[in-house]
Model the fold of this input.
Amino acid sequence: VKEAGDIPLINLYGPTETTIQASFHQIEIEDRSCIPIGRAVSNTQLYIVNKQVEAQSIGVPGELYIGGTQLARGYLNQPDLTAEKFIDNPFGKGRLYRTGDLARWLSDGNIEFLGRIDHQIKVRGFRIEPGEIEHALETLGIDNAIVDAKDDNNSNKQLIAWTTENDPFEDNWSSIKSKLSNSLPDYMIPAAFVQMEKFPLTNNGKINRKA
Done:
């Protein structure tokens, strides 16, 4: 931002199903630890809801739903997928698109993107959204973390957190797990922490979670 001088830098968010642009945020110099996806553009409604499609409170992660005049009609020749992703708006008129994105409201009215809910994993019978754990780690100052489940030597799945930061190893991992327990249940606390020099990337530069 400093190098851009007086040139405004805008962070835009929106899936193809909502004609690309659904929210915006003009990046400020204080946006260091978190760059929000911002607020809804004109004629657009944004909702963050739980699994029962009930509105989430400020700071509570949930799935981002989008409504407005720019919504697509659906998927060509895919009525089942259209019915799954485009639903009647329980909060008002029209329809909503289920983005599959995990987000939360910030206290200033902006929205923070946390990840994808379709990265949901199952460990010991519990369905877990890694984005919630990654966000909890971020609140402890561990900004670069990826959480997933891997089989141990007995073929039991365990949560593992990968990071490119050194801070967790300067601290005590037992202490970090103790801090996480203040905001997460026991089954969502990673069993191990792995330090990496860098994350594997896909051809288009996104983190390759499968790798």
